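Input record, target 12 of the design panel.
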């Protein structure tokens, strides 16, 4: 059985994951209008991943006798400046999510809820991967700079990332 404190904290994370899904969906749509098909595919896939993160929390809360609450969400931005800025926003967003997961882990230890602590380890590992992937992409963008041909190759590269890795 979940304590009220843990239930509220997990419900807070449901909202964060759902908002992450919306932000990446908005990025996908923006990239698509700019003609970068690979980046758009990457962001659509990433948005789906975030929805899966949200659903996993929803089911866990309900399985443990709590009630997962589906709340309204903050609307994401419509445009994202440059591609570099967009991926920087993605990276910063993931760092924020990692911090929230760490805070949750901290609460489970204080509440001695070891089942939820164990459940959250999946998210801890996932965040390490997500941050590394975002950092990797940012490094590539920094190498390209303003080169248009480079951007075309980058778009293809990101498309490959989408088909080869779980985002
Ligand atoms: Fe669910 Fe990208 O954090």
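The sequence produced for target 12 reads:
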């Amino acid at each position: 059985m979940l304590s009220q404190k843990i239930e509220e904290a997990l419900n807070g994370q449901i909202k964060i994951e759902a908002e992450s899904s919306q932000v990446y969906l908005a990025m996908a749509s923006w990239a698509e209008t700019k003609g970068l098909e690979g980046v758009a595919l990457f962001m659509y896939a990433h948005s789906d991943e975030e929805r899966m993160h949200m659903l996993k929390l929803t089911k866990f809360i309900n399985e443990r006798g709590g009630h997962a609450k589906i709340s309204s969400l903050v609307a994401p931005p419509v445009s994202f400046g440059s591609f570099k800025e967009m991926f920087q926003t993605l990276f910063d967003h993931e760092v924020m999510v990692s911090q929230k997961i760490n805070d949750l882990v901290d609460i489970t230890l204080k509440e001695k809820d070891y089942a939820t602590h164990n459940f959250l380890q999946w998210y801890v590992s996932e965040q390490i991967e997500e941050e590394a992937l975002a950092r990797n992409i940012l490094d590539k963008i920094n190498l390209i700079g303003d080169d248009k041909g480079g951007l075309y190759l980058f778009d293809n590269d990101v498309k490959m990332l989408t088909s080869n890795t779980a985002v």
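The chain has five helices and no strands.
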